[in-house]
Amino acid sequence: PTRRSSDLFVFLSLTVLFALLAIGHLADNEGIVKIAGWVGLVCGGSAIYLAMGEVLNEQFGRTVLPIGEKH
Length: 71
Description:
The protein is 75% helix and 0% strand. The protein is mainly α.
């Protein structure tokens, strides 16, 4: 299977989230940890959108939510 841009966005934002959390805690910097929290919300939202898109597109046999694949 090929990678979709939506898959890449979810995993890239997750990588950035973990990096920011590690840096923020190692540097004891509350500001970086708060930024990581916002990145986490974006990552979670995009993961929910991707999951809903996969289910809805498969269920209806057409593109209901665009997730980077053709139906």
